[in-house]
Design brief:
The chain is an alpha+beta fold and 293 residues long. The chain has three domains: 2-91, Rossmann fold (3-Layer(aba) Sandwich); 99-115 and 183-289, ATP-grasp fold, B domain (D-amino Acid Aminotransferase, Chain A, domain 1), CATH 3.30.470; 120-180, 2-Layer Sandwich (Dna Ligase, domain 1). It has ten helices and 16 strands. The structure holds adenosine-5'-diphosphate and magnesium ion (MG). Magnesium ion binds next to loops.
């Protein structure tokens, strides 16, 4: 079968891993960038990439949508919806990506499903958000609603400083996403879920409070995965609708495991470095089994 991979950077490590895995398992990769997509309407409606009608692909694996304008983000998602509507298996589905990219939407769905999450306040008005500062304790964590790789998140202790930055962010029309700080001592857990299996997991150990591998955290294999962690990760993915995802989990001394977010376009280079089998091959095997089903 022909398996598409749509990505921001076709030369990225994960995309190369997928290409190798697709070929090794006897299929044909078709790698393309979001910006190569052309959508026709009234010709009749088709979506093309370099002369190839995308609805002829068996499946499309969605890799990072990348930093883009609101218009580009919406267009990219529109096209994925269109492709899915034509019966192509798109993973993760655009609806799941839309949920997972939004930290607030993810968190309220997780909480509604009974999954423990950190106390979080979201709003547009600095004064209203700041009323919660005592409930959240010190420091507070401020994050971009649509952020990734730990970029742009920061901690604030002082109420004055919080007021300055939050009022500036609100002035610039950002949504304020403020969270209690969980004292995790520089370590959290990343679980990689494929379908209904947690295929691999690692501790991410950092000198900083942000444990993203991108920021230099060290991966340490977590094996076997504790059953509670495994169940939490799988359930979190199911709640947001992701079939392939990286779930970030922190440990709180009193409350136990709390889910921070579900990454719908996860990288796995750090995790691969401590995993004895190819994660890309697991992804491709899963995709093939889903198409055949
Ligand atoms: N509320 C929090 N308390 C303590 N550490 C946090 C909190 N939120 C995030 N972190 C740390 O920052 C990292 C990045 O936060 P996360 O919510 O996963 O966003 P991103 O999309 O940027 O990865 C987490 O892996 C964790 O180490
Ligand atoms: Mg994260």
């Amino acid at each position: 079968m022909i398996i598409g991979v749509v990505t921001r950077n076709p030369h990225g490590w994960a995309t190369k891993e997928l290409r190798k895995a697709i070929e090794k398992l006897g299929h044909v990769p078709f790698i393309f960038r979001f910006r190569d997509i052309i959508a026709e309407v009234g010709f009749p409606a088709r979506v093309f990439v370099k002369g190839c009608d995308v609805s002829s692909l068996s499946a499309i694996i969605v890799r990072p949508i990348g930093r883009c304008s609101l218009e580009q983000a919406i267009f990219r998602m529109d096209v994925l919806h269109w492709i899915e509507d034509r019966g192509v298996y798109v993973v993760n589905s655009p609806s799941a990506i839309e949920i997972a990219v939004d930290k607030y939407r993810t968190l309220y769905l997780l909480e509604r499903a009974g999954i423990p999450v950190p106390k979080t306040v979201v709003g547009e008005c600095c004064e209203e958000v700041l009323k919660y500062i005592n409930d959240l304790g010190k420091p507070i964590v401020v994050k971009p609603l649509f952020g990734s790789r730990g970029l742009g998140s920061f901690r604030v202790r002082s109420k004055d400083y919080a007021w300055r930055v939050l009022s500036d962010l609100a002035f610039l029309k950002h949504v304020l996403y403020v969270q209690e700080y969980i004292r995790h001592r520089g370590r959290d857990i990343r679980v990689f879920v494929i379908g209904d299996r947690a295929v691999a997991a690692m501790y991410r150990v950092a000198r900083s409070w942000k444990t993203n591998v991108y920021l230099g955290a060290k991966p340490i294999r977590l094996y076997p995965i504790p059953q509670e962690v495994e169940e939490l990760a799988i359930k979190s993915c199911r709640v947001v609708g992701c079939e392939i995802a990286g779930v970030d989990i922190v440990e709180d001394r009193e409350r136990g495991y709390l889910v921070l977010e579900v990454n719908s376009q996860p990288g796995w280079r750090g995790l691969q470095s401590v995993t004895p089998f190819s994660i890309a091959e697991e992804i491709v095997k899963y995709v093939v089994s889903r198409v055949r089903r």
